C-alpha cells in the first residue's frame, strides 16, 4: 500500500481538526497494541514512524515515574545487546565471509524480467536493413505487453525494497517541509473579491477561494471534492489543468484531465451560486479564453496526433456540438495556441511550427458570434513571432533576420482609416521598439497602460527592462537589479490561475508582478511599482516550520551557497554550470579535501533554458552532502538563440559533448569523482541521459531519467506518432541522409552496447515512463530497457562461452551473478508530468531519491548543522514531555508529535549512520543462474506483488503523512557520547570538528555539575534520558 494511503486510514480515526499534529497522524496510538501490531505487520519499516512516539512515551514515563527507569532499561538492554552484537558480527571479516557463504546457498531470487525478442527487419529509405526486435511493445492493447510492464514494475519495487525505510524517511522529510496550508498570491478582480488558491493539509489538490473586503472567505471550487466525485472517483489520473475566470469574476471554466493524455473536459460554473452549467466541452486543449463580457469562450481541440488543430467559439447556453470552427490548421507541422492580449481587447490565435509562425486575431468584444478572425502577418519560412496589443498598436516580438529576438510595432489594421491592402503594406508601417542585439535574447514582453516590460537573457543571466511608454521613442527605461548571480525570473506567478488573473487585473496599474527564485531563495511573488521603483513581496514560499505547523527545522538560507562555474567544451566553447551545496558539507573546504556526491541535471533542447530554482525536496540531497548541478548546454537558449541553434539538427551532438565536458570538469576540479556522479534528465533531457550513458558510461555511477525520448530514429520515421512532423525542425527528418547519420551516432536505442552492460560499465539506471503520455510514448522507455536487458544477456552468454572455450576473454572480469548494475523500469498510469497529487508525487520522488542515494553510497541520514532546530519547537516539545499528560488522553497526540519532531531527528537508527548500500544487511545475496545471470540489482528483497501500474487515484484521497524530522543527534546537542556519527565528523572542516569537540567537552562538564546536584533518583532518571537521546 502506498505510504500516504496507509495514513488515510489513520486520519479517519485521528483527533479532530485543530488538535496539534492531528493531520500528521503517522501511526496508531501507542495504547492500541493490536493496531500497532497490524501496522507493523503490514510493512515492517513502519517501525520508523513509531520510534519518535516510543521515545517520547518512554521519556515521559521516566519523568513521571522514577520506578519506570529500571523497567525501561531491563526491557531495552537485551535488544541493545543483540543489535550491538549483530553490528560487530557484520564488521568481523570471518563472520561476514561465513554469512556471505550462507547467503550463496540461499534459494535464487527471481531474475530480471525477460522480454521476448521478435525479429522484425525492414529496409529504410536509405537502403539499410533496420532491425527492431522489440517493436511489438508498441501495442498497448497486447496482453503480453501489459504483462511485461507489470513484471518490470514489480522487479523495480523488489530491487529497491531494501531502501523502503529510506524512502519513508525521505517522504517524511519532503512532507515536513511542505507548507501544507500554503496559499497563492491574491488578485483582486473588478467584483471586489480577492481570488487565490490554497492547500489543505492531508489533501492532494488545491482549493480555489476568494475573500471579500469584510474577510469572508468563499471556497468556490474544491479540487479534492471534484476528484472524489462519481465522475472521477475511478479515474486512473486526475488533474485540473486550467481554471479561467471571466473578466468580471462571475464565471469560471475549468478543464479536467482524467487520464494524463492532456485532453480536457471543460466545465463552466457560476461562482456565486456554484451552479454547474450543462455546457460540457470534451477533448479540448489547455488554451481557453473568455470574451470580454463572459458570454462566450474561445478554445482549441486536439486531433488524433495530440495536436491542437481547430479553433472554436462556444456561446454559453448553446449546444457544444454546434460550435463553429473558426480556423482549421491543415499543416501537420503547425499547432495552435491561444491567449488574450494584455489590454483584454483581442483574442490572439498563434499557429506555430518550431521556427515558423503566424498570428490571427478577433475582437474580444465580438461575443455574439459575428466576430471575424483576421490574419495579422502570414507565415514565412524560418520567421516566428508573437504579438500583444496596446491601444491601436500590435507589438510584435520576432526573430526575423536576427539571431536573437527584436521588437517592433504595427498599427492594428482595423483601427486605420484605410486598412492596408496587404500584409506587406502593413509591415511598411512598422516602427522599431527595441533593436536586435547579438548577445541579448528577448524572452518575453508584457504591456501595461504606461509601461513596456521586457524580459531579457544575456550570458546566462536574466534581466528585466522597464520602458516608460509616456516618453516618446522608448528611450526612457531602467533595469531591475538583483543581488544574486544564480537566480531565475518568471513573468507573473507559478500558479497559472493567479498568473491569468494578474493579466486581467493589472493592465491599468503601474504594477509588474513576477516570481523570483534561486537555488537558495524560496520562490517569491513580487509586485514591482514601475514608477516608484519599489518592490513588495506579496507571497513567499514557506519552508518547513516557518508557518508554525511545519517540520521543526527552520530553513536557513545562509547554510547553503550557489556558484556559477564554466567548463570548456571539446571545441573550446565555455559551458556555464550552476551549482548549489551546503556550505559545511562541501568537500573542497574540508581538511583533507574530499569529493561530494553530485546530481548533474540538464535539458538541452527546444531552446528551453535550464533555470536554477529553489526546491524544498532537493534539500534532502544537499543535507546528505550532495552538490546539485545544472549544465547550461547548447540546445537550450541559456546563452541566447545562437546557443540553441548550435545544439539542434545536425549539430545535436554538441548537446551531449557539452554535458560530458561539464561532468569531466566537475571530476577534474575535485568536486566529485565518477563513482559519486549521478545524472538526471526528463523528456528530451532523457535523450540527453541516454546518449551520454552510451557515449561515456565511465563518467557516471547512476542515471535517472523520466519519460525519456530514446528511440529517436524509429520515432522520427513514424509519422503516425504524435508530434513527429512537428519535431522535424528540432531533430531533423531522418529521410535526409545527413540527419539520419547524425541520429544514428547518438540514438540511445540504436547504440546499446551489450558488452559494456555485461561488464558493468554502464551506470545504475532507473527509467520512468507514463502509460498515457501523449508526448513521449510509453513504449520508448519500455523498448529501451527491454533491449538493454536482451543485449546484456546475449553478451554475457557470448563472453562466458568464449572464456570456456579458451578464448581471449577473461570470464573473471564479468560481475558475479547478482552483482550487475541496477537496471530498473517503472511505467506509471500517468501522463508526461507524472502523478499530479502533491503527496503521490512526493512518494514517487522518494523512490527516485532513494535510488540515487543508494547507488552513490551517500549517507542515508541527513546531516544537520548547528542552529537549525527551532527554539520554539524545542520549547513546545519540552513542555509536552514534562506535562505529565498520559498517552491516550486529550493532548497526547500533540505531545507525541512535538517530541517526535525532535526525537525523529534526521531519520531512524534503523537506517544506520552511513550508506544504505554499505550496511552489511543489504549486501546482495548470490543467486543461482538465470537468463540474465540472476539479478540486475544490488539488493534482492523478497518478491512482492505490489505493482506500479495499478491506479493511483485512491492514493490521492489520503492524508499527509507528515512527521517532522529534525536531527537531535547530529550537532544538535543531544548526542554527546563517544560513538557519535563518524560520517558527520568527517564531513566538517577540521576547525569545525575541533570546535564541536570543545562544545561536547563543555556540555559534558555541565552535565556532570548538574548530575552532582541531583538526588539519587534524579541521577538515575538523567542517565535514562541521556541514553534515550543517544539511542533514538
TrEMBL record:
Region Disordered: what ranges? 7-26, 921-1024
Domain of life of the source: Eukaryota
Q: Where is the composition biased (Basic residues)?
A: 943-956
For bias kind Acidic residues, which ranges apply?
A: 967-981
- Compositional bias, Basic and acidic residues, is annotated for 957-966, 982-994, 1002-1013
All residue ranges annotated as the Peptidase S9A N-terminal domain in the record: 117-539
Q: Does the keyword Lipid biosynthesis apply?
A: no
Q: Does the keyword Protease apply?
A: yes
Which InterPro entries does the UniProt record give?
Answer: AB_hydrolase_fold (IPR029058), Pept_S9A_N (IPR023302), Peptidase_S9_cat (IPR001375), Peptidase_S9A (IPR002470), Serine_Peptidase_S9A (IPR051543)
Residue ranges constituting the Peptidase S9 prolyl oligopeptidase catalytic domain according to the UniProt record:
614-857
Write out the entry's keywords from A to Z.
Hydrolase, Protease, Serine protease
The record's family statement is: Belongs to the peptidase S9A family.
Task performed by this protein? Serine peptidase whose precise substrate specificity remains unclear. Does not cleave peptides after a arginine or lysine residue. Regulates trans-Golgi network morphology and sorting by regulating the membrane binding of the AP-1 complex. May play a role in the regulation of synaptic vesicle exocytosis.
Could you identify this protein by its name?
Answer: Prolyl endopeptidase-like
Q: Which organism is it from?
A: Polyrhizophydium stewartii
Identify the taxonomic lineage of the organism of origin.
Eukaryota, Fungi, Fungi incertae sedis, Chytridiomycota, Chytridiomycota incertae sedis
Amino acid at each position: 500500500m502506498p505510504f500516504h494511503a496507509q495514513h488515510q486510514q489513520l486520519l479517519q480515526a485521528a483527533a479532530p481538526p485543530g488538535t496539534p499534529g492531528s493531520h500528521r497522524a503517522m501511526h496508531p496510538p501507542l495504547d492500541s497494541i493490536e493496531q500497532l501490531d497490524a501496522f507493523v505487520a503490514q510493512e515492517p519499516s513502519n517501525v520508523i514512524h513509531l520510534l519518535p512516539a516510543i521515545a517520547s512515551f518512554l521519556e515521559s514515563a521516566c519523568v513521571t515515574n522514577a520506578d519506570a527507569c529500571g523497567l525501561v532499561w531491563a526491557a531495552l538492554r537485551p535488544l541493545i545487546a543483540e543489535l550491538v552484537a549483530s553490528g560487530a558480527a557484520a564488521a568481523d571479516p570471518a563472520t561476514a565471509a561465513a554469512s556471505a557463504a550462507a547467503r550463496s546457498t540461499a534459494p535464487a531470487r527471481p531474475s530480471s524480467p525477460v522480454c521476448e525478442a521478435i525479429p522484425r527487419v525492414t529496409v529504410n529509405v536509405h537502403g539499410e536493413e533496420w532491425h527492431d526486435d522489440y517493436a511489438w511493445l508498441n501495442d498497448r492493447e497486447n496482453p503480453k505487453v501489459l504483462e511485461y510492464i507489470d513484471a518490470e514494475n514489480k522487479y523495480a519495487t523488489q530491487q529497491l525494497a531494501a531502501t523502503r525505510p529510506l524512502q519513508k524517511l525521505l517522504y517524511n522529510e519532503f512532507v515536513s517541509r511542505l507548507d501544507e496550508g500554503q496559499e497563492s498570491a491574491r488578485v483582486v478582480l473588478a467584483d471586489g473579491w480577492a481570488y487565490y488558491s490554497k492547500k489543505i493539509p492531508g489533501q492532494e489538490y488545491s482549493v480555489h477561494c476568494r475573500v471579500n473586503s469584510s474577510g469572508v472567505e468563499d471556497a468556490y471550487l474544491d479540487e479534492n471534492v471534484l476528484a472524489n466525485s462519481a465522475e472521477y472517483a475511478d479515474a486512473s489520473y486526475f488533474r485540473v489543468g486550467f481554471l479561467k475566470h471571466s473578466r468580471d469574476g462571475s464565471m469560471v471554466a475549468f478543464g479536467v484531465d482524467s487520464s494524463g493524455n492532456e485532453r480536457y473536459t471543460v466545465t463552466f460554473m457560476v461562482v456565486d451560486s456554484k451552479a454547474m452549467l450543462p455546457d460540457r466541452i470534451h477533448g479540448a486543449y489547455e488554451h481557453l479564453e473568455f470574451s470580454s463580457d463572459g458570454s462566450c469562450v474561445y478554445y482549441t481541440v486536439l486531433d488524433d496526433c495530440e495536436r491542437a488543430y481547430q479553433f472554436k467559439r462556444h456561446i454559453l447556453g448553446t449546444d457544444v456540438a454546434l460550435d463553429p470552427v473558426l480556423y482549421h490548421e491543415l499543416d501537420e507541422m503547425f499547432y495552435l495556441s491561444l491567449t488574450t492580449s494584455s489590454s483584454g481587447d483581442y483574442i490572439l490565435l498563434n499557429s506555430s511550427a518550431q521556427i515558423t509562425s503566424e498570428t490571427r486575431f478577433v475582437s474580444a468584444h465580438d461575443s455574439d458570434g459575428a466576430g471575424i478572425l483576421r490574419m495579422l502577418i502570414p507565415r514565412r519560412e524560418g520567421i516566428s513571432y508573437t504579438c500583444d496589443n496596446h491601444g491601436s498598436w500590435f507589438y510584435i516580438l520576432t526573430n526575423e533576420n536576427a539571431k536573437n529576438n527584436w521588437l517592433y510595432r504595427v498599427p492594428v489594421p482595423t483601427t486605420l482609416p484605410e486598412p492596408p491592402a496587404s500584409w506587406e503594406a502593413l509591415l511598411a508601417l512598422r516602427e522599431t521598439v527595441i533593436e536586435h542585439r547579438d548577445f541579448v535574447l528577448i524572452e518575453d514582453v508584457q504591456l501595461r497602460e504606461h509601461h513596456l516590460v521586457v524580459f531579457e537573457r544575456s550570458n546566462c543571466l536574466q534581466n528585466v527592462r522597464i520602458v516608460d511608454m509616456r516618453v516618446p521613442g522608448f528611450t526612457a527605461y531602467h533595469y531591475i537589479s538583483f543581488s544574486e548571480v544564480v537566480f531565475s525570473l518568471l513573468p507573473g506567478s507559478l500558479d497559472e490561475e493567479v498568473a491569468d488573473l494578474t493579466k486581467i487585473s493589472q493592465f491599468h496599474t503601474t504594477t509588474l508582478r513576477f516570481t523570483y527564485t534561486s537555488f537558495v531563495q524560496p520562490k517569491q511573488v513580487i509586485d514591482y511599482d514601475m514608477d516608484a521603483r519599489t518592490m513588495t513581496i506579496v507571497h513567499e514560499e514557506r519552508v518547513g516550520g516557518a508557518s508554525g505547523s511545519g517540520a521543526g527545522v527552520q530553513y536557513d538560507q545562509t547554510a547553503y551557497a550557489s556558484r556559477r562555474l564554466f567548463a570548456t567544451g571539446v571545441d573550446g566553447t565555455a559551458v556555464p554550470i550552476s551549482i548549489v551545496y551546503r556550505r559545511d558539507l562541501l568537500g573542497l573546504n574540508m581538511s583533507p579535501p574530499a569529493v561530494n556526491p553530485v546530481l548533474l541535471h540538464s535539458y538541452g533542447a527546444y531552446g528551453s533554458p535550464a533555470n536554477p530554482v529553489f526546491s524544498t525536496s532537493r534539500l534532502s540531497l544537499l543535507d546528505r552532502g550532495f552538490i546539485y548541478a545544472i549544465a547550461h548546454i547548447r540546445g537550450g537558449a541559456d546563452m541566447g538563440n545562437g546557443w540553441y541553434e548550435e545544439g539542434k539538427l545536425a549539430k545535436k551532438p554538441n548537446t551531449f559533448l557539452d554535458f560530458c565536458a561539464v561532468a569531466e570538469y566537475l571530476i577534474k576540479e575535485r568536486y566529485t569523482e565518477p563513482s559519486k556522479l549521478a545524472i538526471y534528465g526528463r523528456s528530451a533531457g532523457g535523450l540527453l541521459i541516454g546518449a551520454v550513458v552510451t557515449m561515456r558510461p565511465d563518467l557516471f555511477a547512476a542515471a535517472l531519467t523520466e519519460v525519456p525520448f530514446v528511440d529517436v530514429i524509429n520515432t522520427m520515421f513514424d509519422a503516425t506518432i504524435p508530434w513527429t512532423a512537428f519535431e522535424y525542425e528540432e531533430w531533423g527528418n531522418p529521410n535526409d541522409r545527413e540527419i539520419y547519420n547524425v541520429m544514428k551516432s547518438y540514438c540511445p536505442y540504436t547504440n546499446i552496447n551489450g558488452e559494456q552492460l555485461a561488464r558493468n560499465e554502464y551506470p545504475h539506471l532507473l527509467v520512468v515512463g507514463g502509460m498515457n503520455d501523449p508526448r513521449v510514448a510509453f513504449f520508448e522507455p519500455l523498448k529501451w530497457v527491454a533491449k538493454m536487458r536482451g543485449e546484456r544477456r546475449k553478451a554475457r552468454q557470448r563472453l562466458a562461452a568464449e572464456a570456456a572455450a579458451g578464448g581471449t576473454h577473461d570470464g573473471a572480469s564479468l560481475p558475479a551473478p547478482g552483482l550487475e548494475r541496477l537496471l530498473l523500469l517503472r511505467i506509471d498510469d500517468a501522463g508526461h508530468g507524472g502523478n499530479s497529487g502533491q503527496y503521490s508525487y512526493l512518494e514517487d520522488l522518494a523512490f527516485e531519491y532513494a535510488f540515487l542515494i543508494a547507488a552513490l553510497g551517500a549517507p542515508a541520514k541527513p546531516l544537520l548543522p548547528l542552529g537549525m532546530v527551532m527554539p520554539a519547537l524545542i520549547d513546545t516539545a519540552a513542555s509536552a514531555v514534562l506535562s505529565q499528560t498520559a498517552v491516550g488522553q486529550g493532548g497526547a497526540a500533540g505531545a507525541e508529535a512535538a517530541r517526535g519532531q525532535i526525537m525523529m531527528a534526521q531519520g531512524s537508527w534503523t537506517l544506520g549512520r552511513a550508506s544504505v548500500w554499505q550496511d552489511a544487511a543489504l549486501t546482495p545475496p548470490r543467486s543461482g543462474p538465470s537468463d540474465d545471470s540472476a539479478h540486475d540489482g544490488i539488493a534482492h528483497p523478497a518478491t512482492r506483488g505490489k505493482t506500479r501500474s495499478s491506479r493511483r487515484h485512491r492514493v490521492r484521497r489520503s492524508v499527509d503523512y507528515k512527521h517532522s524530522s529534525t536531527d537531535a543527534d547530529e550537532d544538535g546537542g543531544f548526542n554527546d557520547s563517544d560513538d557519535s556519527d563518524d560520517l558527520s565528523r568527517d564531513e566538517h572542516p577540521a576547525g569545525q570538528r575541533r570546535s564541536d569537540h570543545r562544545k561536547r567537552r563543555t556540555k559534558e562538564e555541565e552535565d556532570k555539575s548538574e548530575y552532582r546536584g541531583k538526588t539519587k533518583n534524579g541521577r538515575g532518571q538523567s542517565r535514562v534520558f541521556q541514553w534515550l537521546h543517544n539511542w533514538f
